Amino acid sequence: MPPTVGGARRRGAPGGISWNHRRLWPREEARQGRDPGTGWRRVHLPVSRAGKGEAIAQVTEVTAIKVALSTASVFPERTPDAFETAARLGYDGLEVMVTADPVSQDAAVLRKLSDYHGIPVVAVHAPNLLITQRVWSRDPWMKLMRSRDLAEALGARIVVVHPPFRWQREYARYFQDGIAELSAGGNVAFAVENLYPLLRGETEIAAYAPHWNPVEMDCSAATLDVSHAAVSGSDVLEMAVQLGSRLAHVHLGDGTKPGLPDEHLVPGRGTQPCAELLRWLTDTGYSGHVVLEVSTHRVPTLGDRQADLAESLDFARRYLAGARPAGAGTRS
User: Are 93 and 113 in contact (CB under 8 A)?
Assistant: First the structure.
């Protein structure tokens, strides 16, 4: 029976951690809650976003390309909450962004959370953000090595890494060779993520080196972030084509226009060709994960956050499963 905890402290959580749950769905219900006739997964929507008398479950098809949730998508909630959300809504896995949250750095606790909720960790995002500069070490190479170790301990095959900031001159100088060396002979790929130039008035400022765009870099694997492509004013479909076999990982989130802020909207709420990209991934035999990296920190309630992430999962699965956007063309 799925208990409603309603603000009480739940004990016996993995690793001796306790955290505040409003509702907790057991692993069996989250992972086995499929329609026996279709194999589709039921996604439980929060009561606060269901109308009076409406059902609070929807069914989404589990696609060949797996759809994971980034822990960043539940901020300001914490890493354990991301596991619970992913299990409740029916995501296939989780990308752990390493932050100052001690749980995001601890392989043993993450393994226990993964086992408890039945949610595998499919990728680790290295702590490359400005706000994580002091996490683990100020040495950027140490951050990457520890991210690789964490990924290996969790069975993840991808470490998402940002290009160096331009002021990290030594790191930037050896970045491409260093990434190749770290990746050689291992089971973990360092997938360099596209970022964006910064603007000062009408002048474009290069904030990253050797480049903000992995298309222009000598790297064997890349992460394509749709929201970042919006900020840079790039054609995300053309970037995907140019990356070709180097495209190892996708961050799905919408955007509306070039320039900051980096919006990370629920897919379908911006102007980016999110649906077309998902169809292209399916049509071209993409073998990586699609990770929902959606900003929900401004939503008014937990129920709204859960509904946004359920909508995001439904969007991704719908177009990965074969729905064709209106007016969609083909690219190869």
Answer: no
> In this structure, which long-range contacts are made by residues 203-206, counting pairs with CB atoms below 8 Å and at least 24 apart in sequence?
206/166
Q: Compute the distance between CA of residue 191 and CA of residue 179 in angstroms, rounded to an integer.
A: 9
pTM for the model: 0.81
- Tokens found for residue 86: 């992913």
The upper half-sphere exposure of residue 270, i.e. CA atoms within 13 Å in the direction of its Cβ, equals 26
Going by C-alpha positions, the residue among 101, 141, 96 that lies closest to residue 289 is 96
User: Looking at the 3D structure of the chain, how many domains does it have?
Assistant: 1
Is residue 150 a part of any domain in this protein?
Answer: yes
33: in domain: no
Q: Is residue 1 part of a domain?
A: no
β partners of residue 66: none
Range of the domain at 286: 64-320
User: In whole angstroms, what is the distance from residue 128 CA to residue 144 CA?
Assistant: 9
Calculate the alpha carbon distances from 284 to 97, 227, 253, 275, 277 in Å: 28, 22, 21, 14, 10
Burial of 321 (0-12, 13-18, 19+ CB in 10 A): middle
Residue 138 DSSP label = S
Q: What is the CATH number of the domain that holds 76?
A: 3.20.20.150
Kindly report, residue by residue over 66-119, the tens digit of the pLDDT: 999 999 999 999 999 999 999 999 999 999 999 999 999 999 999 999 999 999
